[in-house]
Design goal:
1 helix, Porin, 308 residues, mainly beta
């Protein structure tokens, strides 16, 4: 009799434990993991509900499953919807453009350009620019320029410029990352002009960045001047996302309607520096010096950019 009671007690205990384990494995359907919302990235749910537009230095880098950092430099992380390196989100060379800025980026720039001919007065041009990154690899820039020639000259509005760029593919999908550029220049004291450019650029090695532009500019009135130009820039990073140094070069052939093919030949080259004291602010400085009788004595660029 006692053996039967013990057997029944053991059987009841076993059934109770089995029932408890089965209950623990049952998940309430209301608490089941929901599938991710279409278009939502992992980690989006952790962002604050009132997250603001990210600036270029705040954009998260593309990640891979690896035990090492994908890029050696922070400025070479691939960011944004085009997978471009972070250094392309800010101007690197005053004379040479590279690619487009990320969608949603806004930046204001102030340019000072000092053009010193071999003979005659020096011209100082100041230019304000608004830079806007648009979706689908588009970018729009709007410029407003003033100019003063010589110490006695009057300061006056010289031009308004409207620029559109379009990158032909996401970064790295086409060799040299080609980008087309169209600019219309409304000159106040001269005929208007149209400028077409093909922008090229890439990375040679960690910390080495380059760009080159093929340029055609045509005046639509007056002497119908045409300019055929190539520019180039090479920069090396000394301090990641803070300081880079390099060199820039501009070479141009210029002719007019009455003398097509009789070109003046211009060549300018010099050092180039970009300094970023803060993530939002950058300075670009490029003093170029002319070579040959048709070139200016000097052509100096100073650019201050602030991302907003």
């Amino acid at each position: 009799m006692i053996r039967r009671l013990r057997a029944r007690s053991a059987l009841a205990a076993a059934l109770l434990l089995s029932s408890t384990a089965a209950t623990a494995q049952v998940v309430n359907p209301a608490h089941a993991q929901q599938p991710p919302v279409a278009g939502e990235r992992p980690g989006d749910a952790e962002e604050p509900p009132n997250a603001t537009r990210l600036r270029s230095w705040e954009l998260p880098a593309e990640t891979v499953v690896t035990s090492e950092r994908l890029a050696r430099y922070f400025e070479e992380d691939r960011v944004g919807s085009y997978g471009q390196p972070r250094w392309t989100a800010k101007r690197l060379f005053p004379t040479t453009r590279v690619y487009v800025v990320p969608a949603g980026k806004l930046e204001v720039e102030h340019w000072t350009r000092v053009k010193t001919p071999k003979e005659g007065p020096t011209t100082v041009e100041n230019q304000a620019e608004l830079e806007i990154g648009l979706p689908h690899r588009f970018q729009v820039d709007i410029y407003y320029a003033t100019e003063k020639s010589g110490r006695e000259g009057d300061l006056g509005v010289s031009a308004q410029k409207f620029e559109v760029r379009h990158a032909l593919a996401d970064w790295g999908e086409l060799p040299l990352n080609p980008t087309v550029y169209v600019e219309w220049v409304e000159n106040d004291a001269a005929a208007d002009a149209m400028e077409l450019k093909l922008l090229l650029g890439d990375e040679l090695a960690p910390g080495w960045h380059w760009g080159s532009n093929l340029v055609y500019e045509h005046q639509v009135g007056d002497a119908l001047e045409s300019v055929y130009e190539i520019t180039g820039g090479l920069a090396h990073t000394l301090r990641d996302s803070e300081l880079s140094v390099g060199a820039e070069v501009k070479a141009a052939l210029v002719d007019e309607h009455g003398d097509r093919g009789d070109y003046s030949r211009e060549l300018e080259l010099g050092p180039s520096i970009r300094w970023q004291p803060t993530p939002a602010v950058h300075f670009d400085f490029a003093p170029l010096f002319g070579i040959g009788p048709d070139s200016r004595a000097a052509d100096v660029y100073l650019v201050l950019g602030i991302e907003i």
